[in-house]
């Protein structure tokens, strides 16, 4: 006799998917705004890695200054750190989503979030979310879909 999942299991997964989708939407929006304000190039995975690893030119220049000279410079430093933190948070969110929901569900979430951004007229990679390209490539290479 096989056991069936409880009736409560389906809504919990649906709620979790909605939470991940909402979180990813909000993270991408804020990352996009910060990138635009700071003039940060998020056009490639290498650009993202440089920010995450504090190897971006801004971090190298600001490392030479032990303290910001004025309020404007401190604000810019905080914004760069916020951008870095949000990029790291998004990586963690997606890793957790893949682990808990499966690769196919994570892919579907990224596609839905991007479809909304497209409707809003936002440039596809303005938020530096390059994982969606890799997830799309994976789904094409697995004709029957990708599962957990």
Written account of the structure:
The protein is mainly α. The chain contains six helices and no strands. Helix 4 crosses helix 5 (103-119). The longest helix is centred in the middle third of the chain and has 31 residues, at 71-101. The model is unreliable at 1-10 and 142-148 (pLDDT under 50).
The counted number of beta strands is 0
Sequence of secondary-structure elements: HHHHHH
Low-confidence stretches: 1-10, 142-148
N/C terminus separation: 24 Å
| Class from secondary-structure proportions | mainly alpha
Rg from alpha-carbon coordinates: 18 Å
Mean pLDDT over all positions: 80
Name the assembly state.
single chain
The best one-word shape is elongated
Please work out how many helical segments DSSP would assign. Answer: 6
Question: Can you summarize the main beta sheet?
Answer: none
Please bin the fraction of helical residues: over 70%
> How large a portion of the residues is in β-strands, by DSSP E?
under 5%
Short description:
The protein is mainly α and 148 residues long. The chain contains six helices and no strands.
Name some characteristics of this structure:
mainly alpha; 0% strand
Strand and helix map with partners:
Blueprint: H1 9-38, H2 45-52, H3 57-64, H4 71-101, H5 103-119, H6 131-141
Helix pairs in contact: 1-4, 1-5, 4-5, 5-6
């Amino acid at each position: 006799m096989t056991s069936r999942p409880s009736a409560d299991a389906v809504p919990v997964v649906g709620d979790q998917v909605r939470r991940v989708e909402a979180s990813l939407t909000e993270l991408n929006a804020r990352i996009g705004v910060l990138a635009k304000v700071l003039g940060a190039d998020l056009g490639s995975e290498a650009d993202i890695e440089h920010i995450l690893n504090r190897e971006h030119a801004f971090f190298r220049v600001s490392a030479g200054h032990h303290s910001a000279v004025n309020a404007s410079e401190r604000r810019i430093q905080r914004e760069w750190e916020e951008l870095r933190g949000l990029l790291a948070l998004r990586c963690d969110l997606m890793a957790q989503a893949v682990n808990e929901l499966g690769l196919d569900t994570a892919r579907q979430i990224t596609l839905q979030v991007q479809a909304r951004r497209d409707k809003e007229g936002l440039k596809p990679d303005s938020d530096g979310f390059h994982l969606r390209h890799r997830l799309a490539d994976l789904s094409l290479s697995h004709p029957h879909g990708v599962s957990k």
